Amino acid sequence: MKTSYRFLLRSLPLFLSGALGLALTSPCQTSPLPNAPQPQGGAREAATIRNSPRNFLKDQEAIWTSPAHLSGSNALGPVVLVLATTVLATTDHQVMSSHFTDKTLNDHASTASTGLTGLMIAAPVAFFAVGEMGHRNQAAETGILGGEAMLDSLAVNYAVKAVSMRERPTLDGAKGKFFQTSVGLDSSFPSNHAIVAWSSAAVIASEYPGWATQLTVYGLATGVSISRVVARQHFPSDVLVGSAVGWMIGRYVYHRHHRY
To answer: Does 52 fall in a domain?
Structure first.
C-alpha cells in the first residue's frame, strides 16, 4: 500500500496535467468548442428550467460539431489532452497491474469517489434551491447551468463509452482492451464520475471565480478523479479524459448561457 501511495504522489503531476492545465488557462485559448453567440440587443436570456431542454439540444449540436471549429487559437487544449492521454494509455496496464491492489484501499477509495461525486451533483441543486427561495438570481442560474453541464457531459460520455467499450482494470489482468462487445455501456473509458464532477465544478468556479471557491470545487473534482483510479474502477487515461472534457463542457455551458 505504501508503494502505491508513493507511486501516486510521483505520477500525480502527469496524471492530471491535461485537466488542471485546462482549468488554469483562458477558455478562449483552449476550448475546442465554438465561441458562445453574443446576445443581440441586450442581455442574455435568463437560464430557466423551461429553457433547459432547448439549451441542451443546442449544446449537443455545438459539442458534436466542435471539431469543425478547431483553429490555431483554440487547438492547444485538445492537443495537450490527446498527448497526455496517449502517454497515460501506454502505461495504464503497468500502473494498474502493479499498484492499488489492496482490496481495503480500493473499497475506501470507491466509497470516497461516490461521496465526492454526490457532493458535486448536490451542489448545483443546493445553489438552485437557495436561489429560488432567496430570490438570488445568480445562485439559481448556477444551479440550472450546473445541471445542464452535467447532463451534457453524461450524454457525451455515454456516446463515447458505446464506441470505446473498454474493459475496466478489474478484468483480464488490467489489460484495458478496447472494443470488447461484452462491456457495452459499462466501458471504463471515459469516467462518468470524473466528467460529472468536473463539469459541475467548472460552472460553479466560473460563476463564483474567487480563489476559495475554485480551490474547493476543483479540489473536490480532483479527489473524484484520483479516487476512481485508486479504487481500480478506471485507468488513469479514463479519468484524465473525463476530467478534461467535463471541464471544457462546463466552461462552454457557462459562457454560452450565463447572465451574471
So the answer is: no
